[in-house]
Amino acid sequence: MATKKKSTTAATTKPSKAADPTAPPRKRRAKDPLDEVTLAAIKQTAAGIHDAILQHKRPELRTPVRALSNVSYDPKKGYLEIGSDKKVRTLSVSSVKTFAQTLKMMALSQELIKNDDVATKRDAYYQSKNWGDARFDEQPESDTVMDDIEALFSDLGVSREQLRFVPDQHGGAVAGELVVIDRDIETGELIEIDCTRFGSGAYAVPSWVEHLKFKTKAKFILCIETQGMFQRLQHQKYWQKAGCVLVSMGGVPTRSCRRFVRLLSEQCKLPVYAFTDCDPYGFANIYRTLKVGSGNAAHINQFFCVPNVRYLGLTPQDIIDFDLGKATHPLADVDVKRAFDALKNDPFFQNQKPWKQAIDLLMKMQKRAEQQALSLHGLNFVIDDYLPRKLKNPDAFLP
Amino acid sequence: MATKKKSTTAATTKPSKAADPTAPPRKRRAKDPLDEVTLAAIKQTAAGIHDAILQHKRPELRTPVRALSNVSYDPKKGYLEIGSDKKVRTLSVSSVKTFAQTLKMMALSQELIKNDDVATKRDAYYQSKNWGDARFDEQPESDTVMDDIEALFSDLGVSREQLRFVPDQHGGAVAGELVVIDRDIETGELIEIDCTRFGSGAYAVPSWVEHLKFKTKAKFILCIETQGMFQRLQHQKYWQKAGCVLVSMGGVPTRSCRRFVRLLSEQCKLPVYAFTDCDPYGFANIYRTLKVGSGNAAHINQFFCVPNVRYLGLTPQDIIDFDLGKATHPLADVDVKRAFDALKNDPFFQNQKPWKQAIDLLMKMQKRAEQQALSLHGLNFVIDDYLPRKLKNPDAFLP
Q: Could you tell me if A139 and A266 lie in one domain?
């Protein structure tokens, strides 16, 4: 059949439409104020370069240094923050290709906004194949330039998603007391998505959430590590009993999951609680990333972390208080290494005494417990006992 | 704060509710005919054992042998099928613990159905800690017994999900011309989920889909490898232009994703098309698993594969026909190994000449292409050109 197919398409071996950044825009919805901010930022950056050239100066681009040495943690701000060190890229013979690629990437962003479209890193890489000498040969090159642009624009308060470069990952699943307001891409008509009306299913958060609005009477947002626990709480309509929004992170939350929770929490002034396994991965990878962001990408933490999240559980103390000993596992070497790293090298845990105590207790017990270990006391013990008991005293949650 | 928390819960260190399989059932919806079938199968299996004991015979459990040597492929049936070889487990001193665990697991399934609840493998493992001497010490033991039960009941046409043991994974994201009909767990009220009304988001398929019904005017189901491509087609409302249902598989489709597509395709008599990267992973892992299932778990393929799916793309011939040369990557060693395995060892590819030709062409070109390589010709080339051209001739799709 492969040969048959060949004959049907052989007459048109050349694609009928090549990439054309000047093509008329597709149908688009009303102007978004956020897009205007982004377009202004692109224009301002490009104008700086243009002006330098007109003045016979060498144009330059200043991006924050993306390294742990340029990261600090201020508990008042609540996230790992990028410092003021800048990398300056001046146009020269050796930098001309990267310089051109950066400008082409900015032009692509502008086109995406005008066409109300989005692109992934991969899309941008393949588009670059039409940029002549400025094309990328390998995707890691393209990713680096995009990371630089992200850092450059983060200084102007503009995120990569606002530039319309979106991740190739969805943003988790959501159920509960929430109406998400999105728009029809063609008509601009508002679409209300009622997250109480999913039966056993859920709302899959898109890769790109900047445009979403919310209506809710929920009292809190509960971010859950595993799909299994999320499914249990959803299946038993826990969100109705507790008046909350359930978010399934599926391990370390993706960019769009973190951004979704941040926007929802800010717009609706909702507290956020995290519910993960009691192990160093749950503390130092999942919770830490959700709360203060990542050290390696500190320039984006202003958009993506959820500084007001608090840790509902499981804690090492819960293993004792809820008699979970029979359902624990010994700490593996990788757990011990992670816990040690958190205590020794992580500015977040170093600043939080209750967390140091919790990790010390974990190391002393040499035991870890999964959130589903609560099934030891009955499949719905988590709903009937654990969560209600914990929620009586949110002030006691780990910070 | 950890210490503060301790003091607030110290007064009730013992959980207030232990696992109690005789606890009154929660609120539940109307009887489901499917549940009656499952309960009858459990009763039948248990009665066989009970009768043997009363007759002073040694009770035994017969499960299909789960090995590639007991798997065959019949193109007419359309999936990798388990053979008739059986493993017989007879109650003896050495098998008594596993025998007891199997029966306890069946009893747990019965309780889940009666309480209209579900459990993951992990839930079942932790529950077993209350089974005295029959408890599992490690989760792999528990998983093996569950796999045996799954094989045992597959002979009776009952899937693990019908036994209410559900995976710890969601089933992908869905958007387009489809109304999913689910039920409220408490009231039994039917809930209609309109998958045209998600804006940029989507419907997240639950871990467990047996109870879902559908309404659709779609002409086909399009199963997509990457979230990036799914998001593009969703963002541009491709499902409206083409009259289809979009399913984001996110790599190799999970059990519930495959089961969802299978049920939807069967109930609504819809053709299914797969759209993956042009590489051996896309062919032999993603597409093959979706279509004919897995060799290692052939006993479940009767429920989980989608025999009528056809391969819309990308194909090696597409790299030529759509002039994607600039956007290809060289085959890596792992690609070559996978392609070689498919040709030499896989009964599906061995039975499908067009696939052998396609993989031969790929090996000859020594190139692979990602589905997003179509962005080379414009971000929406896939919508404006590729998909319409391919869909003019579905008979030419790879089988």
A: no
